[in-house]
Amino acid sequence: MTERAPIQADHADPQTILNRTGDGFFALDSSWRITYANAEGQDILQTSMRDDLETIEGRNLWDSIPDSRESVFFDEFTEAMATQEPAAFEAHYAPVDAWFEVRVFPSESGLSIYFRDISDYKELAQKRQDSLYALQQLYSISSDGSKDFTTKTRELLALGSEYLGLPNGFMTRIEQGEQYVVHSSATHPEVQEGSSCPLDEAYCKRTIELDTLMTVVNASDEGWKDDPAYDRFEFETYIGGRLSINDELYGTLCFADTSSHPSGFTDTQRTFVELLTRWLGYELERKQAREQLIRERDRLDEFAQVVSHDLRNPLNTATARIELLQEDTDSEHLPSIEDSLYTMEELIDDLLTLARDGQKVKETSAVQLSQVARTSWNHVETNDIEITVAAGDTAIFADPPRLQQIFENLFRNATEHGETVGEIEVGLLDDKPGFYIADDGHGIPTGEYEQVFEPGYTTQNDGTGFGLNIVENIASAHEWEIAATESTTGGARFEVSGVEFVDSNPP
Question: Is this structure's pTM higher than 0.90?
Answer without folding.
Answer: no
